[in-house]
Amino acid sequence: MTTTSTMTTTPLTPRRIDPSAVVARTTARSSVQETWVQILAMARRALKKMRRKPEQFFDVLIQPLLFTAMFAFIFGGAISGSVSDYLPVLIPGILAQTALTVCMATGVQLREDMDKGVFDRFKSLPIARIAPLAGPMIADLIRYGLASVLTLVAGLAIGYRPGGGVLGCVGGIVLTVIAGWSLAWIFTWLGTMARSAQSVQGISMMIMFPLTFLSNAFVPAETLPGWLQAFVKVNPVSHVVSAVRDLFNDGAVTAEVGWAVIGCVVVVAVFAPLAVRSYSRKM
Amino acid sequence: MADLSAVRADSLVKNFGDFRAVDGIDLHVRQGEIFGVLGPNGAGKTTMLRMLATLLPIDGGHAEIFGVDVRREPHRIRQLVGVTGQYASVDEDLTARENLWLFARLQGLTGTRAKTIAVELLERFGLQEAADRPLSQFSGGMRRRLDLASSLITRPPLIFLDEPTTGLDPRTRGQMWDTIRELVTDGSTILLTTQYLDEADQLADRVAVIDRGRKVAEDTPDALKTQVGDSTLQLNLADGSDTVLAANVVRRLLGEEPVLTPESGRMNIPLPDPNRAADVLIGLREAGLGISSVSVAKPTLDEVFLALTGHGADDEPQMEAAR
Ligand SMILES: Nc1ncnc2c1ncn2[C@@H]1O[C@H](COP(=O)(O)OP(=O)(O)O)[C@@H](O)[C@H]1O
Ligand SMILES: [Mg+2]
Fold first, then answer.
1. What are phi and psi of A10, to 5 degrees?
2. pLDDT band at residue B314, thresholds of 50, 70 and 90?
3. Average pLDDT over every residue of A20-34
4. 8 Å CB contact between B237 and B254
5. What is the pLDDT of residue B3?
């Protein structure tokens, strides 16, 4: 690698820069449309990185396959009497768990990314503060989609026959992707707050385990003691899991679907502004 | 709007905990000039630049860029200033072309325009052959050039360059100097920091010398140099224990204060007039003090510092003192 090169004297454009004209053209903030273009450019950056580092898809690919098979055969008999009876309960639960794992990766990767030099440039550019956060999350939609489809396929392979048919399954997967994207704002906020990627990982684990296991993802809520049931009922993950069960197994858009969507909206409304504020302050 | 200043900063202050990294600096950069901020490592150059670039909150004082308030209108400031940091702020996982495309799109250029500007800049900075290679294969000089190119996409009227040539080999350094001079002919104003007096001398129209968060001098490079003398006589005494005696001889003959390094018997003497070097050498021989080597050199940053502050650029107890 040599650095042989010449710097030519061709100016970028022949006109001289006029500072007062540039000042007159400046705007006080990015417009909605500009922000959208910025988010898409950031999403494209994240997609390029994904293509270049496919190993980051490992957890997305392995976890649904492994957990579906493992949980089905270990808990199936104990909880539902048989594996095939457990699958309609289990698959939506695994789906939620997988989505949360992807969420966690979102936070950890954002933290890693923010420590790199290029974030200094992002901060020095006239762009909306939400763009560097929201861009990667758009690219992550692909991961949620991939993980959801794989979980469903793994279930089908060991005998799951969803009663909701194709439409129900598509509905359930779309809901999972929306839920994953919404809950990811919690982890994005953590990513902007924490000191290092490791601490994001640690804190995320502590949040993820209660969210998944203190929900109806793997066991029916009725089997739990009363004080736990109270938490399980307000846990947005429970609502997402119930809603996905209704969609997958019955093809029914029930009240649970509504609750799940409301839960997601609330999470985004609370955590997206928190994340942007904490990111803007970190300068 | 008759004010032709690019940067006007009054008593800027930045605290990190109890430590005051920038301690009331005034700065006035005129439009169209290259303004140099000269100072040793840890003087507060980067901190000052980052405050002006809206990358760090300003703790005290006031700053305007082309009349726009830095604290109140950060988004406008970001449209006026191109920042090239001390460490390249480009995306290591993308190629040079992808980097430029990304920064162009983020600043609102259309997809086609982003592509053509990337090509233009790659060509201008001699990076066209490396355009599609991963940055991990880039040398330090190439990275710096890409970083600078990234700051020029929207042709900002003010460009910040934080130690643009630190760590570059002399040839790449010369190329960078040429590029910086070209930017001014385009109509940009440049605020650059450096640790090298010769760099400030080569590039800057005016220089502010910063030490421990304070501005200790501001002048043209020529005027600064004459404060220290045009050149320096560097002596190594045969016997290190003679330094005190030798210093007395110098004071008597020239009326100048030499910089001493007694451990190695070394002495740097500011020379207002190079012809007087001979007087010193004769004086030392008459005093019976032996010399092992002698040379005449241009003043270094250290000597500028000593002349301006009374202490060298290297003895820096500032962090310890602050804690
Ligand atoms: N984020 C920070 N936290 C604490 N101290 C800092 C921070 N950044 C810089 N400093 C301190 O402020 C002083 C000035 O640093 P800097 O502006 O980087 O100097 P220069 O760029 O002139 O080398 C140094 O003593 C440095 O250790
Ligand atoms: Mg610095």
1. -65, 120
2. low
3. 92
4. no
5. 66
Helix axes A83-114, A165-193, angle to 10 degrees: 30
pTM for this entry: 0.82
**What does the pLDDT read at residue B229?**
67
> Domains along chain B?
7-225 (3.40.50.300), 230-298 (3.30.70.260)
Q: Which pLDDT does position B228 carry in this prediction?
A: 66
Work out the number of other CB atoms within 10 angstroms of the CB of residue B9: 22
**CA trace torsion B99, B100, B101, B102 (10° rounding):** 50
Distance CA B140, CA B164 (A): 11
Q: What is the pLDDT of residue A68?
A: 85
**How far is the centre of ligand 1, averaged over its atoms, from the C-alpha of B50 (Å)?**
11
A225 touches B: beta carbon within 8 Å: no
Q: Which residues pair with A247 in a beta bridge?
A: none
What pLDDT shows up at residue B313? 63
Predicted confidence (pLDDT) per residue in A250-270, tens digit: 988 888 899 999 999 999 999
Residue A30 in contact with partner chain B when CB distance is under 8 A:
yes
Whole-angstrom distance, CA of residue A124 vs CA of residue A106: 23
Domain map (residue ranges) of chain A:
32-281
Q: Angle at Cα A188 formed by Cα A186 and Cα A189, nearest 5°?
A: 65
- Residues from chain B that touch A126, judged by Cβ atoms under 8 A, are 75-76, 78-79, 107
Helix (H) or strand (E) holding B5: strand B5-16
